[in-house]
Write a structure and sequence with these properties.
Elements: H1 9-40, E1 43-45, H2 51-56, E2 62-74, E3 79-80, E4 88-104, E5 109-123, E6 126-129, E7 139-142, E8 150-151, E9 154-162, H3 167-176, E10 178-191, E11 195-205, E12 208-212, E13 221-223, H4 227-288, E14 309-312, H5 321-326, E15 342-345
Parallel strand pairs: 1-2, 7-12, 8-13
Antiparallel strand pairs: 2-6, 2-11, 3-4, 4-5, 4-10, 6-7, 9-10, 11-12, 11-13, 14-15
Helix pairs in contact: 1-4
């Protein structure tokens, strides 16, 4: 059967969607790769007594991208945990998450789902020092810590409050397709005395050393990991996105290959049918040359041309090629009305 020569709508949608996903994954991979390379190029700074003098001699009194490792110390006041005694910190976050099971109508399975229904974060000014008990040593004031791309907080309290189940509720859950499991309450803190690795712009402002968010294109980090571990974590994310990009790219190439192969086969089939048509026309012209009497073995449709087609799978020989082409789609045998799966030319001698 002849094709229309164009990819189907489904094929176009599949190719376009796979190409779009590949482009998105590649964009994320490039961004992660640039971020990791920039992080690896950050300058390590030690908390020395002469750090202020070093910055005084630098252009703009700053290091555009610096790495500082120190101990957290509050400037004036601190934040207390609501659930743990004698637990003080400089950043405090309370979160409430709803956990529930949701019925998937496609897979016919219950899937876990969580949703943050409330979150509150408080912070107070704090410094990074060599020792939180040494007030006379050098310190670096951390500016806008909540803007950090990665802010590692320690979970100091966690409790799960299960949902109360009754027969009426269970029946309603099956009707709505949602089954609540409960509420998870979490308290996180950046404790005083915790070791922190800060990566950002280091500036000297009014004789105060400050670590603040860097310029555009560079990420701000406040991590509990050391610098080498932080770099390794970023590189592992880069590898993950690279693998996803390669997988989607291969899927896109495979999809494009099958579409092009199908188009090539349709093109070859069209060429074959055109060749058959030329052969039929040449055979008919030879048969009609010098023939004045009535056409023998005439087509049952037009009654003027010779029969030239064998229809499969029924096997009837009842039509010329011109009438075969004029049959409506899907083509059916005019004798038995069975669908014609394939046509074989019949050569009359």
């Amino acid at each position: 059967m002849e094709g229309n020569g164009r990819p189907s709508i489904g094929q176009i949608i599949l190719l376009a969607s796979s190409s779009a996903v590949t482009a998105i994954f590649y964009s994320v991979y490039r961004h992660k790769s640039r971020t990791a390379q920039t992080l690896k190029g950050a300058k390590k700074i030690s908390l020395d007594d002469d750090l202020s003098d070093v910055l005084m001699d630098l252009p703009g009194k700053c290091v555009p991208y610096a790495v500082i490792e120190g101990v957290v110390r509050s400037v004036k006041e601190s934040l207390n945990s609501q659930f743990v005694e004698n637990c003080r910190g400089v950043i405090h976050r309370l979160s409430l998450k709803e956990h529930k099971m949701v019925w998937n109508r496609t897979t016919h399975l219950w899937n876990d789902q969580e949703k943050v229904i409330h979150q509150r974060t408080n912070s107070v000014p704090f410094d990074l020092t060599r020792d939180d008990s040494d007030d006379s040593g050098p310190f670096i004031r951390v500016i806008k810590p909540l803007e950090a791309a990665e802010l590692d907080l320690e979970t100091v309290y966690e409790k799960f409050h299960p949902a109360v189940q009754s027969f009426t509720n269970v029946l309603g859950h099956f009707i709505t397709g949602e089954r609540p499991k409960g509420i998870q309450e979490t308290e996180e803190m950046l404790k005083i005395g915790a070791t922190l690795t800060g990566v950002g712009e280091l500036v000297l402002d009014n004789k105060i050393l400050k670590l603040q968010p860097p310029k555009a294109g560079m990420s701000y980090y406040l991590s509990s990991l050391d610098f080498d571990s932080l770099v390794q974590r970023q590189e592992s994310q880069v590898r993950l996105w690279k693998i996803l990009t390669v997988i989607c790219g291969v899927a896109t190439c495979v999809t494009l290959f099958f579409i092009l192969r199908r188009q090539y086969r349709q093109h070859k089939e069209k060429q074959r049918l055109k060749q058959l048509q030329r052969e039929f026309e040449e055979a008919n012209s030879r048969a009609q040359d010098g023939e004045d009497e009535e056409v023998r073995n005439a087509c049952t449709i037009c009654l003027s041309n010779q029969k030239a087609c064998v229809f499969l799978e029924c096997g009837h020989v009842c039509s010329c090629y011109q009438c075969y082409q004029a049959l409506p789609q899907p083509k059916k045998c005019p004798i038995c009305r069975n669908t014609i799966s394939r046509m074989v030319p019949l050569y009359n001698s």
